Amino acid sequence: MLWLTAAMLLGCFGCVKTPQRFERTWYDVFDTVTVLTGYADSAEEFDAVAERAHQKLLEYHYLFDIYHDAPGGANLKTVNDCAGEAVSVDPRITELLVFCREADAATHHRVDVTLGAVLRLWHDAREAALADPDHAAVPDAAALREAKRHTGFALLEIDEAAHTVRLTDPLARLDVGAIAKGYAGERVAQGLPDGYLLNLGHNVVANGAKPGGAAWTVGIQNPRSSGLLCTIPVTDQAVVTSGDYQRTFTVNGKDYHHIIDPDTLAPAEGFASVTVRCASSAAADMLSTALFLLPQAEGERLLGQYSAEALWVAPDGTVTKSDGWDA
Ligand code: AMP
Ligand code: MG
Questions:
Q1: The predicted structure's pLDDT at residue 12
Q2: CA–CA separation, 299 vs 89, rounded Å?
Q3: Does the structure show a pLDDT above 60 at 292?
Q4: I want to staple 61 with a disulfide (CB 3.0 to 4.6 A). Which of 29, 206, 234, 296 is the partner?
Q5: Which pLDDT score, from 0 to 100, does residue 189 have?
Q6: Who lines ligand 1 at CB under 6 A?
Q7: Running DSSP on this structure, what letter comes out for residue 107?
């Protein structure tokens, strides 16, 4: 009898599998390198989860793209191309834009996705500079001021019931680069099991902890070297960094980055990077851009509204943290 019980127990333990770590990398979404890491009992189980995640990421990528047409219908490029007219869109677009409108109000217009007409001039200057560095130039100041006249949420009609969007000014444009990646990462991560980590460039979303309860380790880039500034333990949270070392170009020896101050219409100079940790990846993405653009005290007040924490790196390398960062 004893022998039988021991055999049954052994047999039972024999069935218990230790989840293994798997990883998948994609280069075709959100203009960045995307890595999904997860623990699963088999490669087949992980592959099925990864396949679903990739499909969803592609859907959001196409919907939120402002530079390319989407294969299956209208996207944000369509809204921009058809400025002046109402465009029928997927509800995921109206939901994103409602979130962006709230972000505009919460940040007192520092993070404003209707700045597209201005941001496009900086985007085009960067593309031209990277293609032909000898003729690199910053956008013309008068052109930037003229573009600014075609910005503001007063120019965007969002009909959530009819799922239509209309830029009322034919020269207005949307650019959701400050928010879309974190927003999509959050929606996609909601469909993942616990024990998965989705890394979309500088946007990381951790679903739960690792098997056994250990936290994930997330590295924060040193803005002034190719190494890490530090690593932090993360469980069930998003970590997003905005930095002056991302998407840069050089004119006459001076580097220009991609986060534009809506008042000066030039790259913001307050910080080298800002990292935000928060339960919501959409909020973390929005906040990292906002805090990059705001004086630190105002940024700290904004963090409180989202139960978020931040780490600021000043241009001289000085690191400061919000009160609850280390907790
Ligand atoms: P992030 O890397 O999340 O901080 O977002 C930077 C991106 O947001 C840029 O590449 C632009 O597409 C866009 N962006 C830059 N400045 C602003 C701004 N003041 N408000 C809204 N979007 C912006
Ligand atoms: Mg952002």
A1: 46
A2: 33
A3: yes
A4: 29
A5: 97
A6: 110-113, 115, 119, 175, 177-178, 242, 246-247, 258-260, 262, 285, 288-289, 293
A7: T
With contact defined as beta carbons under 8 Å apart, do 274 and 308 qualify? Answer: no
What are the backbone angles phi and psi of residue 24, rounded to the nearest 5°? -135, 140
Q: Are 86 and 166 in contact (CB under 8 A)?
A: yes
CA distance 69 to 62: 8
Cα 296 versus chain centre, distance? 21
Nearest CA to ligand 1 atom 15: 259
Residue 2: is its pLDDT beyond 50? no
Please report the pLDDT score of residue 5 as a whole number: 45
- For 96, residues 6+ apart whose C-beta sits below 8 A from its C-beta are 64, 176, 179, 180, 183
The model's pTM: 0.93
Q: Quick one: which atom of ligand 1 is closest to the CA of 247?
A: 10
Q: How far apart are the CA of 88 and the centre of ligand 2, in A?
A: 26
Confidence check: pLDDT of 8 > 80: no
Judged against a pLDDT cut of 60, whether residue 207 lies above it is answered with yes
From ligand 1's centre to the CA of 76, what distance in Å?
16
Q: Strand ranges (DSSP E) for 91-222? A: 156-159, 164-167, 196-200, 203-207, 216-221
